[in-house]
Specification:
Elements (H helix, E strand, L loop, with lengths): L3 E4 L3 H12 L4 E5 L3 H6 L7 E2 L1 H10 L6 H4 E9 L8 E11 L2 H14 L3 E4 L7 H5 L4 E4 L4 H7 L14 E8 L9 E6 L3 E10 L2 E10 L7 H4 L6 H15 L1 H4 L8 E2 L5 E5 L3 E2 L3 E3 L5 E4 L5 E2 L7 H19 L4 H25 L6 H10 L3 H9 L4 H8 L2 H14 L10
Parallel strand pairs: 1-2, 1-7, 2-6, 4-9, 7-16
Antiparallel strand pairs: 3-5, 4-5, 8-11, 8-12, 8-13, 9-10, 10-11, 14-17, 15-16
Helix pairs in contact: 1-5, 1-11, 11-12, 12-15, 13-16
């Protein structure tokens, strides 16, 4: 069996390492942070793990957070426009889960080590690849820092944006009542941005991860540009004010006397440019350097897919390593081919969702979802299969076909309402 060096201890790196470990393939993880540093650091994200990822965790024996206790199975949607539709609902077939990654990643790091794996704390740069190739038969880069992004280079056909399309702020907030049933709420304020209210399990119990996807130049951009750390109370009041104006169905569940970050500093502010990069490169000695997870595709979090895509890519790579037992360029081409439909389809979906102004066919789809429960259910279930939503929103003709298909199914328009 080949020996695999994995750079990065996020979802992509850990899932690949655990999958290969189960198959008896030797691996070593390189990361610049210990599990203790991850656990005590700032929030990493607010990503949901959807059913295929959770099924993979079950198969690896690392699903320590069962969905019957920690999960949710519903999306609520609200379009904040005058005389707009009431809140409308879509259901998953199987539950999803949101967990603070300061809990998740250290637990998986510990499990990998307890099963005999080695995690080496060191910072790696592309200049180190030749040296690592003397130790390993394959180098997998599963970390998203800039030097790795530049090393692989972009695919312009699926990387249309020169800069971020949303300015982000995500905080873990107390004082936001959970919906019944527990659900993710997606609120849209046209021209200003989206809010995802995610029920997240933190060190201190349930919280709401309020992910504000703010349009640059819009009224909500200040949630990213005004730094919470400079005046936490002013930022708290600002958040309440903006939620009340732009995302009222979330604001109405807030107890303002309790509304506060779960812990000081439980917030991330910044921006992400969505990019898909080349799949691999080869070193002078022929060793393949494979891009995985964030190193391969960086996605805006509006659809909550980063970790799910990373886990899927880890499975594809692990399967090919185990099947072939040879990690040459042919292997790398196989991985590239197998993951492309999903990665490119996800890119289409994300890039359409964050296009400004909102494309008319996406507006039409959202309007139809508010009236057609079966269409809203399909869109929601496709969070588990994101390339399907990429297919759905790719062209106006595809949106029209989806609406026609659900019209033929037959529906009661009132069935889409949440209340």
């Amino acid at each position: 069996m080949p020996d695999i060096g994995i750079i990065g201890a996020g979802t992509a790196g850990l899932h690949l390492a655990l999958l290969l470990q189960q198959a008896g393939v030797p691996t070593r993880i390189y990361t610049n942070q210990t599990a203790e540093q991850v656990a005590s650091g700032p929030p990493q994200n607010s990503v949901s793990h959807h059913a295929p990822t959770i099924a993979r965790e079950n198969a690896m024996g690392v699903n320590f957070w069962p969905v019957d206790e920690y999960g949710y199975q519903v999306h609520y949607h609200h379009l904040n426009v005058p005389d707009g539709p009431p809140v409308f609902r879509g259901d998953f077939l199987r539950p999803s889960r949101v967990l603070d990654y300061r809990i998740y990643l250290p637990r998986l790091m510990a499990e990998y080590e307890e099963r005999g794996g080695t995690i080496e704390q060191r910072s790696v740069e592309p200049a180190d690849f030749e040296q690592l190739a003397r130790r390993h038969d394959l180098i997998v880069v599963a970390a998203g820092k800039r030097s790795f992004a530049e090393y692989f280079g972009e695919r312009p056909d699926v990387s249309p944006y020169a800069k971020p399309q949303r300015h982000l702020a995500v905080g873990f907030w107390d004082g936001v009542a959970q919906t019944e049933p527990r659900a993710v709420t997606m609120s849209i304020s046209p021209g200003h941005g989206e809010l995802l209210d995610l029920p997240i399990t933190t060190f201190d119990g349930w919280a709401s991860a309020l992910l504000c996807e703010n349009v640059p130049g819009g009224d909500l951009e200040v949630l990213m540009t005004q730094k919470e750390s400079e005046d936490p109370e002013a930022y708290r009041r600002l958040t309440l004010e903006k939620l009340k104006e732009h995302h009222p169905t979330v604001h109405e569940r807030i107890d303002e006397s309790r509304f506060a970050l779960m812990r000081p500093g439980d917030i991330l502010q910044g921006a992400v440019r969505p990019v898909v990069r080349e799949d691999y490169r080869t070193l002078t000695d022929g060793t393949v350097v494979l891009a995985l997870g964030d190193a391969h595709a960086t996605v805006d979090p509006v659809t909550g897919q980063g970790a799910n895509s990373a886990s899927f890519e880890a499975q594809v790579a692990a399967d090919a390593i185990i099947e072939d037992g040879v990690v040459d360029e042919r292997f790398a081409q196989k991985v590239a081919l197998r993951r492309r439909e999903r990665v490119d389809g996800l890119s289409t979906w994300v890039n359409t969702m964050i296009e400004t102004p909102t494309p008319p066919h996406l507006q039409k789809l959202i309007g139809a979802m508010s009236q057609m429960r079966t269409l809203c259910d399909e869109f929601t279930e496709n969070f588990s299969y994101p390339h399907r939503n990429g297919d759905l929103v790719a062209t106006p003709e595809r949106v029209d076909a989806a609406i026609a298909r659900h019209t033929e199914i037959g529906h009661d328009p009132t069935d889409a309402k949440a209340h």
